[in-house]
Structure formats: C-alpha cells, structure tokens
Design goal:
globular; 2 domains; about 190 residues; mainly alpha
C-alpha cells in the first residue's frame, strides 16, 4: 500500500518539477513559489497517508457507494458541458487546474456531513467551499478583465483549497471526527417511525 502512495507521489512530482524547471528558465518567481508550495503539499500529504493507512492501519471514514459514482458522473457531465467551450478557446488563459475537481469533491464530502463530529472538520469543510468559490470567481473575473491581481488571488486561493482538501482527507482517518456509523443508522431509523 505504501508503494502505491509513493508511486502516485512520484508521478505527480514529475509534472510539478517540469513546471518548476520551466518557471526557473523563464524567471517567474511567483509561479516558482506556488509550484514549490504544491510540491511540499504533495510530499506532506503522501507522508500523512502512509502514516495513517500503512503504519497505523486506519480505515477511511468517507464511504464510497455506487450512488456516489453515478452522482459524480452526472455532475462531471454538467461541469464539462459548461467548461469545455471555455477551455477550448485558444484566447483563454486557464489559471486554476484543480477547482473543477474540488467542486466535485465537495459534493462527495457533503454526503458524509451528517457523520461529521466536532468543530474542526466542519470548519475545514466550510473554509474549503469558500476558498474554492473565491478561486473560481477569480478565474472568471480574470477572464473578463485580465487584471493581474485576479490571477494572483485565484492561484493563491487554489493552493489554499488544495491544503484544505488534503486536511479533510487526513481528518477522515482520525476517528473522533466522525460519529460511528451504527449510531447514525440508529438515529436515522428513529426518525422513520
């Protein structure tokens, strides 16, 4: 299992290092900082996954069911129908790379919201939603106005969204952030009667 996480990390880091080399070559200090941050974030996330999944043997608390797959596919179709013309336009500059995936992940995280227990995981989810929204709004505003500050805001909030997404994923391995499933089932069945 640890080798799987390491392989995914290496594959992701190869792409990030390619971007870093390009930005070093063209002397774009802002982009170098952002992509260096993504490199550090990916390494920390991989380390946390290996610790919780391999060393401690924790099981994920986000449950994946078949209905989630169909919901994901239907949302993806809608998002792609909206974004494909935008991304295929040669005159458009795409700033964000992860925001579409984050909107889909929010929907997936929200499915487990009734099992969330405690302030930290709920606050992380709300902050995640806010930062993804600011990031996407910044992209659209930049597309219409081409003001450089919008580009900076959009990419900074995308990085913050990535950090919050990773925190949510790590929180799922810490048991006290989730109510046990059997208690949720008992409570749900009580409301049926």
């Amino acid at each position: 299992m640890g080798a799987y996480y390491l392989l995914l990390c290496v594959l992701n880091e190869v792409g990030t290092v390619g971007y870093l080399i390009t930005y070093f070559k063209y002397k774009h200090p802002y982009d170098i900082v952002i992509y260096f941050g993504w490199t550090i974030l990916e390494l920390v996330m991989t380390g946390c996954l290996i610790y919780y999944r391999v060393v401690k043997g924790c099981q994920p608390n986000f449950r994946l069911e078949t209905k989630h797959l169909f919901t994901f596919i239907s949302r993806l179709e809608v998002i792609l129908a909206i974004f494909i013309p935008f991304f295929l336009n040669n005159q458009s500059i795409t700033l964000t790379k992860h925001s579409t995936a984050y909107f889909l992940l929010f929907d997936f995280f929200a499915e487990s919201y009734d099992r969330f227990q405690g302030f930290w995981i709920k606050a992380t989810l709300y902050l995640f939603v806010c930062t993804v929204t600011v990031c996407a709004a910044g992209e659209w505003i930049y597309e219409s106005s081409h003001v450089e500050i919008q580009e900076v805001i959009s990419s900074i909030f995308e990085f913050i969204s990535g950090c919050l997404c990773d925190v949510l994923i790590i929180f799922q391995f810490i048991p006290y952030h989730f109510k046990p499933e059997d208690i949720s089932d008992i409570a749900r069945s009580a409301f049926i009667f």
